[in-house]
Design a protein that fits this description.
With 261 residues, the protein is of the alpha/beta class. The chain has one domain (8-185, 223-250): NAD(P)-binding Rossmann-like Domain (Rossmann fold). 47% of the residues lie in helices and 15% in strands. The protein is built from 8 helices and 7 strands. The chain has helices at residues 16-27, 39-51, 66-80, 103-130, 152-172, 190-200, 206-215, 225-236, and strands spanning 8-12, 31-36, 56-60, 85-88, 134-139, 177-184, 247-250. The chain has a 7-stranded parallel β-sheet, sandwiched between helices. The longest helix has 28 residues, at 103-130. The termini are far apart.
Length: 261
C-alpha cells in the first residue's frame, strides 16, 4: 500500500516546490487538487500529473481571492469526495525596503503568501474534520529567521507563516489536524532564478549564480524541489503523527552558523 492511498491533497502553487510536492503525493497514491494562477504552469502541472497516472484536478486560482479558493476546494471535494492534506506553497517574492515597496505590492505579498494559508484553512479544515483529521504543511523560508536586505515584504510574510502555523496547530489539534511548516534555503525554483536575475542582471548565467548561492550553504550547493517535497510528504504522512506546531528547516546548513570569518 502506498503512503497516501485514498487521500486527497490540495496543493497551492504549480511550479517549483508545489509541482514537486504534487508529483510526490500523487506517486504516493493521493488524488491532487492543484491551485495556481499561471495558465502555462497549470498546464504543465496537469501534464506531469497525467504522466504519472494521477487523479488530478488543476484549477486556475488566485489563492488570495476568497471566492476562488472556496470554489477550488468545493470542486475538488465534489470530484474526489473529501480533503485530507493541504500544502501551501504559492508565493510571490517582491524586492524592496519599507520605503521602496509600495502599498499595493506589500498587500499583494501579504494576501498571497499569508492570506492564502488562511483561506485554504478556512475552507479546507471543515472538510478535513469530516474525514477525521489530516495534515497541513506551509512552505515558509529561512528568511523568516534571518533575512537579506531589500526583501522587507517577503521576509515579513515568511515570519508570519511560522506564527500562523503554530496558531493553526493549537486550534485544531483536538480535531486531529496536524499543522507544520518547512523553511527551505536556496532551492532550484523560478523564484530563485528570478533572484539570480535581480542580483546579477537579466542576462546573468543562472547556473553560475546558483553555484554562488550554493556556496553560501555548508553543503556547498542549492537544494532541489524534490528534496523539499520529500520532507513535506513525510510531514503529511502518518509517520509524522506526533509532529505538529513546528518548523523544519531544509537549508543545507545555511542557518546553522554565523557569517563571520
Amino acid at each position: 500500500m502506498k503512503d497516501f492511498d485514498g487521500k486527497v491533497a490540495l496543493v497551492t502553487g504549480t511550479t517549483g516546490i508545489g509541482l514537486a510536492t504534487a508529483r510526490r503525493l500523487a506517486a504516493g497514491g493521493a488524488a491532487i487538487i492543484a491551485c495556481g494562477i499561471d495558465r502555462a504552469a497549470n498546464a504543465e502541472m496537469k501534464t506531469q500529473l497525467d504522466g504519472v497516472g494521477a487523479a488530478a484536478l488543476v484549477v486556475e486560482t488566485d489563492v488570495s481571492v476568497s471566492d476562488q479558493v472556496r470554489d477550488a476546494v468545493a470542486a475538488g471535494v465534489a470530484q474526489f469526495g473529501g480533503l485530507d492534506v493541504i500544502v501551501n506553497s504559492a508565493a510571490v517574492h517582491p524586492y524592496g525596503t519599507a520605503t521602496t515597496t509600495d502599498w499595493e505590492t506589500w498587500n499583494r505579498a501579504m494576501t498571497v503568501n499569508v492570506g492564502s494559508i488562511y483561506l485554504t484553512a478556512h475552507f479546507g479544515i471543515p472538510e478535513m474534520i469530516k474525514r477525521g483529521g489530516g495534515a497541513i504543511v506551509n512552505v515558509a523560508s529561512v528568511q523568516g529567521f534571518a533575512c537579506q536586505q531589500n526583501v522587507a515584504a517577503y521576509a515579513t510574510t515568511k515570519g508570519a507563516i511560522h506564527t500562523l502555523t503554530r496558531s493553526l496547530a493549537l486550534d485544531y489539534a483536538a480535531a486531529g489536524i496536524r499543522v507544520n511548516s518547512v523553511s527551505p534555503g536556496s532551492i532550484r525554483t523560478p523564484i530563485l532564478e528570478r533572484a539570480a536575475r535581480v542580483d546579477q542582471g537579466s542576462d546573468t548565467d543562472v547556473e553560475e549564480a546558483f553555484k554562488r548561492f550554493g556556496a553560501a550553504h555548508p553543503l556547498g550547493r542549492i537544494g532541489e524541489p524534490e528534496e523539499v517535497a520529500e520532507l513535506i510528504a513525510f510531514l503529511c504522512s502518518s509517520k509524522a503523527g506526533f509532529c505538529t506546531g513546528a518548523d523544519y528547516k531544509i537549508d543545507g546548513g545555511l542557518t546553522a552558523g554565523l557569517g563571520v570569518r
